[in-house]
Every structure is written in C-alpha cells, then in structure tokens.
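Reviewers asked in the last cycle whether our approach scales beyond single polypeptides. To address this, we selected a multi-component target totalling 469 residues and predicted its structure end to end. The input consisted of the following lines:
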Amino acid sequence: MIRVILPPQLRLLARAGYEVKLAVDAPVTQKTVIDALEGRYPMLSGTLRDPATGQRRPRLRLFACQEDISHASPDAPLPDAVATGAEPLLIVGAISGG
Amino acid sequence: MTGIRVLVGTRKGAFILNSDGERRHWDVSGPHFGGWEIYHVKGSPANPDRLYASQTSSWFGQVLQRSDDGGKTWETAGNEFAYEGETGTHQWYDGTPRPWEFKRVWHLEPSPGDPDTVYAGVEDAALFRSDDAGQTWRELAGLRQHGTGPQWQPGAGGMCLHTILLHPQDASRMYIAISAAGAFRSDDGGASWRPINRGLKSEYIPDPQADVGHCVHRLAMHPARPEVLFMQKHWDVMRSDDGGESWHEISGNLPSDFGFVVEVHAHEPDTLYVIPIKSDYEHYPPEGRLRVYRSRSGGNEWQALTSGLPQQDCYVNVLRDAMAVDSLDPCGVYFGTTGGQVYASSDAGDNWTPIVRDLPAVLSVEVQTLS
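The resulting structure, written as structure tokens, was:
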C-alpha cells in the first residue's frame, strides 16, 4: 500500500486522518498516486491539480524520502521506498501567507 | 414557528447563526470548513434547507459544498468551471491582454423556483449555471463573448462577477455586475447580454459614454419592483428606474459615496441601506464611525443610523456581499465586517446589536427567513 500524508486542509475536506493508505497499480508515479487518491476521495478532485490544465497547483509541493520531487515528471516512478510503503509521499501546502 | 438563519462566509470558514422570530438570542454553529475561505453561502428560496457554499483556497483551488439539512451536514458538489469555447483575453491591470483563468466562485444565486438550479458568478468574470444541484456547471458564455470582454479589466479585488439578480417573475430577465466591467442585462435567460451602464460616470474613464469599465461594487433590487435597480459603485450610489437602461446618482447627503454594500428593505421598495466607506484607499468608515445610512425616499435623502454601532475608533470595512435583510415585520437588517462582527437590527435599522463579534473577517452575509 502507498502511504500518503495530506495537509490539514485536505484532511478536513476528505474527512481523513493524518495518513491515508492507497492501493496503486504499477507504475507508481505522482500521477497514478494522485489518481488513486482522487478515486478514493472524490472530494479532493481539483484540489491537487488544476482541472483545466491538469497541472499541480503551484502552492503544493510533493516530498518523498526527504527529497522535493515537486518538479519531477508526474509520470516518473516514485522511489522504491514509497512504492513499497516503507516511506510516505508527503503533500505539503507551501508556507506562503494566510 | 418563524426563525432566522444567518449564513456567514469568512476568511477562515463558514458560520451559521440561528434565532427565533424575536431575533434576541443567537446560536452560533461553526466554523464549517475551518481554515478555508468561504466567499459565499446562500440558501434556495424553493427549499430553505438546501444551501450552497463556495469554499476556496489559493493553495487548493475551488470546492463547492451543498447541504440538504440547513447546514448541519455538507457534501461536496462539482468544482469544474470550464470556460466555453475560445477562452480569449481580457485586459490586465497594465492594459495588456491576459487570458481568462478561473480562480474562484464569488457568488452563488439559487433559482427562486428550483432548488437544483443555481448560478455561480466567478473570477475571472463569467457566469455559470447548474441544473443538477451543483454537480455539473456550464458557462452562459454569451456574457463573456458578447463583444466587450476584451476591454474588461480587474478591480483591485480581482475581475469578479459578484452580483446576480434574477427577476422574480420573468425567468428570462437577469442582471449581473462585474468589477471593473460594469452591469449587464439578459432578456433571454442568460443566452445573450448587453452592458447597462449609461449614466455612470467614473473619473478614471475618459469617455463619459463608455459602455464598460465601470467598477460596480453591488446591485440591489426589490422583488416587487424589479425594474428599479440600486447600485453602489466604486464611487457614487446610483439608481435606475428602467431596468438599467439609464442611471442617475442618488448619493445626496452621504458623508462619502464610496462603499461596497447596498440593500433594499424587505417590505418598502423605496427604503434602502448603504454603509459609506471613506475612500478607495482608506477602506474604513469616515471619522472612524460605523454608520449605516438609510433612505426612505429611494435615495438622495439619507439618515445616519448609529444606535448600537461603534462611533469612535472603528476602522473595519464591510464587503460587497456582506449585507442582507430578513422578511419579518419589522424588517431585520444584517451586515458583517472585516473585524469579524455581524451586526443586526430587528427594527429596520433604528437600533443595532452585534449578534456575534469575534469571527474571522466576514466576506458575506445572507439571511433566510424560515417558517
């Protein structure tokens, strides 16, 4: 299972806990994980990616294994430690006011 | 038993205030969606337990919420607002062309007759309609594409469509307003539109006959007299007696004719309310005194209403969607401030009291009169 840690605003919206676990078929990428997340929690659709462009929202960052992978290709495989569930994928809201 | 439900949108969540018909004691529920900006919450006139809420965030985009039990529980509705056809450009602050880009829903206007039909006014300015309780949205693109769109320019708060007035008897007639494009009217249910800004004068527009470019802050209409419109413009309070074909100024003796809100008494179509704000760069009341001004003559002669309102050191603002009336007798009037107070008057404005006073900055106030 893939482990994903959501920011507090999205936990509130999804009525989910600190960490959610998702079954994701290979390849495990940013895109397939977010697709699975939106499938499990449809209320999150559009909150991580702009529905018009499909692009990651600019004030969201993705971290895996202590690396900022926000600018990696959405189709690039995530690290093995994330794919095996040893490490979580962190979705973080940028610290930018308000 | 009669009751009042006040729906408050704030910078950090929604709040719902309930009272009985006496309007003395208020129960506050919330924050709903804590931490999110709630631009607007409004109930369906056809089914008062059906509420719609615009939940938005610069981080996470737009979420639409819907309740079928008067705000006790909520579920997400659809949040895809796709502009129809060629997106085109409007003007940016510096006059350069800029593609339309959806940012957020400013205002939700449920249909008077069908709880599943609701309109959304959005930034960048466009009008959307849903006929399935907010699950799916389609743009009424005739507004954005009628011809003047490339000349529209954002106001300081963004290029928002903030006012939607639906004619109470004639479903084909609608009015909307955009900052800073102006007011527009449709006579065919939103398919086609034209500007209705004749008579508006804006110092920053050299052409006194300009069709668009006016920074309209708010429109108001009494349902018994839908040809008469009231407008709080960036500067100037205006009135039209012919459905927006022409406008004349009714600022009269106001201490400042800058402001955001304008509202009409529930039972007296010639009684209206504004809250003067000092200027377009000092967004607080003149002399630090929070005063509602009431005209009982359709404008020009205004009376300051101060009882119960702070009359010194008050530097809050009252934003464009943050005033509403109930339909009890006497009429109740409500407004919210950027300081987090919601003030209410149960005697048409003569006396005021804060019914909650330490909320986050208030973005919108709507009122439901429940029977």
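Chain B touches chain A through 19 residues (CB under 8 Å). We regard this as preliminary and will revisit it once experimental data from Aim 1 are available.
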